[in-house]
Design a protein that fits this description.
The structure holds two protein chains of two kinds. Chain A is built from twelve helices and seven strands. Chain A has helices at residues 16-28, 44-50, 52-68, 79-91, 95-105, 118-133, 154-157, 167-174, 198-214, 225-233, 235-241, 253-260; strands at residues 2-5, 32-35, 73-75, 114-116, 142-144, 219-222, 250-252. Chain A is globular. Chain B is built from 18 helices and 34 strands. In chain B, the strands form twelve sheets. Chain B has a five-stranded parallel β-sheet with strand order 10-7-6-18-29. In chain B, α1 (21-29) packs across α5 (109-128). The model of chain B has no long low-confidence stretch (mean pLDDT 95). The chains are: A alpha/beta, B alpha/beta. At the A-B interface, loops of A face β24 of B.
Chain lengths: 279, 666
Amino acid sequence: MKIGFYPGCSLTGSSREYNESVAMVAKALDIELVEIKDWNCCGATAAHSMNEELSLSLPARIMAMAEEQGLTEVVVPCAACYNRLKVTQNELEDEQKRARVVDILKQPYKGNLKIINVLQLLEAYGTENIKAKVIQPFTHKVACYYGCLLVRPQSILKFDRVEDPQSMDSLIKVIGGTTMDWAFKTECCGGGFSVSRTDLVAKLSGNILKDASDRGAEALIVACPMCQSNLDMRRGAINKTLETPIDIPVIYITQAIGLALGIGAKELGLKRHFVTVEL
Amino acid sequence: MSKIGVFICHCGENISATVDVERVAREIGEMEGVAYASDYKYMCSDPGQTRIKEAIKKYDLDGVVVGACSPRMHEPTFRKACAEAGLNSYLCEMANLREHCSWVHEKGEETTEKAIDLVKMLVEKVKKDKPLQSIKVPVTKKALVIGGGIAGIQASLDIANTGHQVILIEKDPSIGGHMSQLSETFPTLDCSQCILTPRMVEVAQHPNIKLYTYAELESLEGFIGNFTAKIRLKAKSVNYSTCTGCGACIQKCPVKKIPSEFNAGLGTRTAIYVPFPQAVPNKPVIDRANCNYYKRGACKICEKTCQVGAIEWDKEDEIVSEQVGAVVLATGFDVKGTDFFPEYGYGKFKDVLTGLQFERLASASGPTLGEIRRPSDGVIPKKIVFIACAGSRDPAKGIPYCSKICCMYTAKHAMLYQHKVHDGESTVFYMDIRAGGKNYEEFVRRAIEEDTVNYIRGRVARVYEKDGKLIVKGVDTLLGGEQVEIEADMVVLATAGIASCGSEQLAQKLHVSYDPYHFFAEAHPKLKPVETNTAGIFLAGACQAPKDIPETVGMASGAAVKVAALFSKEELIREPIVAVVNRLAPPLYSTCVGCFMCETACPYNAIEHEEIKGRDGSLIRTIARINEGLCQGCGTCVAFCRSKSIDIQGYTNEEVYAEVMSLLND
């Protein structure tokens, strides 16, 4: 089957391994990802904290381009991009805002694209498929970490249980892993403050890692490039806030599934992490 | 030619702000057959009514149309005024210019034109209206009270004390309701059981009250003054006339681990059980879903223990039929369980409790005999956190309303905890403190100032378990939004009060309206708080909305007075809006051909067979006749009648067509 694909900036830069693993898993599950032509940045945190029109126009252009290409459904792996696209779609149901944005874009925008995240893609098109193709069961006890953007605001995203999401947990169970009840599933990692307030990110991400590690997690499973880079790349700063350093890796759900499907660590980008992955 | 009077009301500004009422009166005044038309600020007021009465006399009117609010609101008012001026009250019609026009449209030309159309329709109808006479029906002076909590108890006692018979039904094995589960009550801290149990006994012993416990309403048919209630008496499996209530069977019952409903799941009970020691009646029932004999066909230990042979294994549910004249609904409320809150542990943490569970811990009759101990390990908590508004005032949780009682009981809980655990530390997270009530604010201040309860204004984002402690993460919004983290031993959620389980189905059985949250709807939010829109059915207590004990008791007494007033008359006047089968002179007698399609269609069994006999007694024809006592005027038979022989009085085909044609003839 064919589905539209919007990688976003992170997946071409700091999170190349997410891109690689998404591509590998999609291929293994016979899902053809059709990249949106001439896509642009979604604006992420920067745009929507500065300028409303810009924050709506950027995602609107991406969706308009996808519509032009004849796509009806687009998978967006980055949680921030996914959030921005969904929120924009919702905001542009307002006639006035929509007219303004169309005027800025100078191109038609219908707003009927189905935007899904990677978990929804795997749930909808792959659960049975994955189960059938597992070669090496992922026999690890892990903590599934959803962060803020994947499930909130629930009224717009309408995806999973907002305080206690389960979709990633079910996928991990499908590939033979064990998940856990823990307290920081949807707590914030510090997000975009990674550069400007590394100290805050270290503290918040430290709380998350500590709870997972205290409860015996061998790894953290994520579906957001921002969360992954904070928890992985900032490990040095994080460990300085903790009494005992934590060395559990932070891997993408697609990497975990890829391993179970027998795809090599290198092809899944597992060598690109700061914290060594030995799973 | 008709002489119709038309009266257009401004309803203060409710109508006149959007509808040009003067124009309506002017244009209607020019209609054929309209003898008089005027407008006035408050038609329902005394001077307004006087205008109508005077016009009827002065212009010798033979029909009146009042363009005002909904007939639900003021039709009786205006009909009464007309009757006082000597006009048959059914020659008075109302055009609803408020709910159907001014409230739902913008100000403008078209709105005024719609108002004119609405009045015009009624003018044409009233021209065809025939004078009708009210129907008189007898009243059964016996009340049915549904629900044996404090609301039902109070209503039953008050009605019974006026000398009328009461049937009180309760679905549980004992009356007492939620109030019997409470420890102490705010704002006086008097013991709930001590003030309630004497009333429970009074109910059981009152000569005018017939008590059915372990019983539910099966169906209710009929109408005000003349209801037939079918009551399901669930099989108790114990013969109450021989059982002495000795309790030996309960001692010996081997199934001991059933979570006790009375203790809100904190304690256990047996399969044959009395819900609590002060229960009324103080005799057991067998919970068949959990009894070994009913589940596996063997055990019968209780039968061997019982000295009087009171166990009845084969007893089946019994349906009894009772004639009653009025119904009081007092089915109370439920509280949301802790499992409703994923952020507070989804009910997984044993030491996260609901307010009702804390009541049981604090109660002398509770599972810990009044000592505050953690359900998980029995340890006395040294740090306790109370979270107010758990679910309430939260549209995202589907409960946007305030549950009203939680601010007060949370203050009480914190106070009781401080009284019992002297070195304990209690914290209350709140949104606002709503302590409206006599001595309520003083009570909360006492908790804060004398009992040193730490009140933090802010919400709790999450509660999670770590190393045997409950970590409560919240925010203090009064101290610059500082984050607060408390390592607590116990957390009590003041969970939202919700409509009691099954209230929607019950409302449908009784044809009583209910709100989006399934609380029963009162007839008017201010002026008819205990009535429902169904005549003869009244409300008491928290089945209408969450409320505290004093308010519940007040409402129950109010409902009782309404019932007593109903029973003070020998006969009730009923609207003659019923179906009639036409009768003509011989040899036709009626256009009814006796097909009795109407009989199959009638939901109220109101169609009878009437035999038309000749002088010699021979049967000429059998036609349909409508029992006007049973007919509810729904009109189904009219639609079914193939020969158009049935009409609804007050809404005849001719009258309704006149309304429709008035619009088409423009």
